[in-house]
Design goal:
heterodimer, A: mainly beta, 2 helices, B: mainly alpha, two-stranded antiparallel sheet, 8 helices, 45% helix, 3% strand, flat
Amino acid sequence: MNFQKLHPPERLELRMKHLILRFITVSILMMFTSVLSSAAQLSLDSTTIVRMEQRDIGTEKQNLIPATQFLGIDVRNLPDNNLSLHLYGWGRADLADNSYNDKKADGSLTYAYLHYRFRNPDAGIRAGRLFVREGIINEQIDGISARAALPLGFGVSAFGGANVHTPNLYGESSDGKGDTIYGGRLNYNLKGLFELGVSGLYESRAPALVNYTNGNHRLVGADIWFAPYKVLDLMGNSIYNTETKSFAGHSYLLNIRPVTRLLLSSEFSEYKEKSFLYSWAMFSGAGLNPDERSRITGVRGSYGVTKDLDLSADYKHYSRLSGTADRAGIKLKLSFLDNSVRSGVSYHYLEAEEGFAITGNSSASYHELRSYLMFDGKNYFGAIDLLGLFFKEKIYNQDSALEATLSLGYHLSPELSISGDVTFGKNPQFSDEVKGLVRINYNAILDNKGGKK
Amino acid sequence: MRLLRQIFPLLALTGLFALLVACAQMKAIPGLPASHPEALAIGQQADCSECHDNQQKGTLKPIVNFSHSTAFHLKNHRFYALSDDRLCAVCHKRSFCADCHTNSTEIKPSTKSGYRPDLEMQHRGNFMTLHKIEGKLDPVSCYRCHGRGNSERCIACHR
């Protein structure tokens, strides 16, 4: 790569990435040296999955055997007990035909960052590849994020760095995202009664695209948590797009707990799709109809009859310019033998207006029936999972999509287990579908952190 | 706008002063613990109110609100996580989120955790057929989890 030929923002991003990569590499080496020589606590989460699948595509037959390795590493209590390292990523190698793209091997680093926690005061700083989720912000960056609690109930956080890019769009030389991004949140909390936050993000100019309509990613918004009584809380956020000069969306949830074990929730969301999806180049968000909006209202009730028996019911109403739909359903969850046997059964029905939410058919309505039973014992574990979708009108000449998954496994030790899944399916895409996989889990929890799952 | 420009230096100075004052008093503010003091059972429905009846220091939020009911789980957890994901991190490792929120992945969460149907992972079954319906019902729901990540599978059709 000719560094000089790059545009200044690309050079800046490349420099930043190189700097972060070196920083992470050196830090990791230091961490592991430290782990070996000190009382640092190491936690490993490894999942190896080898899938097996055969596909008939016309006259061509494909044998797919991708082997995927997921690896998570957490190192805590480094030198002064305040520093920790967190890594997670995956890699895949195709042992037969190409399974996903034209690469025989591929992978991704989900996050890799150092976290320094100030015990007193309440503050922290993270550096590396990380997710930032605060207020209206939900981004993956290569950069730095810091937060601190301030006196009188105030709090502040800020982040900045290079965007983590994904594969280029079809026929384009970019994924449609700008190169750098920064933002932050300021919040005020009145002792558990309420929390108000204002947050915003600013991304550098989005690249010009040939085949897609793209826009800059620049948002501001406010979020609220309001809990005047123990039995009631309201939370949600509103987002304003400074590029379209219009509200992008509002999303709120109201929870009421009239009696112990009963939770009643009500949800309201409304999004102006052009403003909310403005920077999502793959769907040419900036080119969407400015009048199109989606609105969802819903209620949900969940009652724990006993500690082992939970009943819930839900209803949602979907509304867009092109039509409306309703979904309602019930769910029952039951566990026995000190939670080692867990089961569930649910039924939902989606009733969509004619012509809404589907192309090529007049009805998108369907019934969904699901049940599962699983056992998690000291030595063996297993599960049966059944799912049936029954369409009101045939899709690709099929009136249903059925899937059954059988999983069996054995704990070789408390940390190490091996399991295998076989899935049988029949659906509008495949008249017969049989898939198998072998999975090895290794979860060495060498500290007192709570359960991962 | 002109007024805003004129008073901006004054506001910035006031903000900086307030921040300095705040920093001087920060030592007294307690933080969240790095992790839950006791390991929690895997697969157990976490009912925080069994032990906690108070506000969690650090977040100052009623901890009873975080009990993991069926309603809390998949559908509503985003409201809690976006409000303050530090409380999630007291019990959950970061990799717990990464089972689904990866920006880039090739295996559906429901396949990765096929031995745990009780987790009710997203996109179970033949979601390729279903996404044509669900995506039109609520297009924003795709974006909320997948963000602006361009999966090569998506690009294959969405050109």
